[in-house]
Amino acid sequence: MIAIKKYVLSVLVENHPGVLSKIAGLFSRRGYNIHSLTVGITEDPEISRMTIVSVGDDYMFEQINKQLNKLIEVIKVIDLSDHKAVARELSLVKVSADSNNKVLIMEIAHTFRAKVLDMDEKSMIIEITGSERKISSFIELMRPYGIKESIRTGLTSLQRGNKLEN
């Protein structure tokens, strides 16, 4: 039986146009889905870090890892799948809110250490950061109030400890 699981890769790449497209194309050509992807410049402006989350089996992961390492623009691929990292996600949630439920919504947000960023007579925008599970739980609690819009950044992650390891 093939075990399907979530893989988290931290990929250090050269920071120039076309690199993201090459990496996304690598997944696409092989029929692998990217569950989430975050990209940002590192402490070195010449290097970007991609956090790529995908779901598949060990064979798929091994193939992706090999193909990524073949790309000239890829500096390093680090497997963060086995909780060797600190990982967070950010979400903005616009929820319906009126004078009857604003206080309750703010109490729930406070419990989740979320921040109310904007409020008017009919809605609130709440920012929440944390694990995927925490954000999903918060969103489920907001559903009964009426979610007007929401966005999630996808996972971003850094390896624990002092040194970069595979």
From TrEMBL:
ACT domain boundaries: 8-82
Keywords: Amino-acid biosynthesis, Branched-chain amino acid biosynthesis, Transferase
GO molecular function list: acetolactate synthase activity; acetolactate synthase regulator activity
Keyword Amino-acid biosynthesis: yes
Source superkingdom: Bacteria
GO biological process: isoleucine biosynthetic process; L-valine biosynthetic process
InterPro entries named in the record: Acetalactate_synth_ssu (IPR004789), Acetolactate_synth/TF_NikR_C (IPR027271), Acetolactate_synth_ssu_C (IPR019455), ACT-like_dom_sf (IPR045865), ACT_dom (IPR002912), AHAS_ACT (IPR039557), AHAS_small-like_ACT (IPR054480)
Catalytic activity: 2 pyruvate + H(+) = (2S)-2-acetolactate + CO2
GO terms for cellular component: cytosol
Enzymatic class: transferase
Subunit structure: Dimer of large and small chains.
PANTHER family: ACETOLACTATE SYNTHASE SMALL SUBUNIT (PTHR30239), ACETOLACTATE SYNTHASE SMALL SUBUNIT 1, CHLOROPLASTIC (PTHR30239:SF0)
Family in the record: Belongs to the acetolactate synthase small subunit family.
Summary of the function given for this chain in its UniProt record: Catalyzes the conversion of 2 pyruvate molecules into acetolactate in the first common step of the biosynthetic pathway of the branched-amino acids such as leucine, isoleucine, and valine.
Name of protein: Acetolactate synthase small subunit
Species for this entry: Clostridium tyrobutyricum DIVETGP
Lineage: Bacteria, Bacillati, Bacillota, Clostridia, Eubacteriales
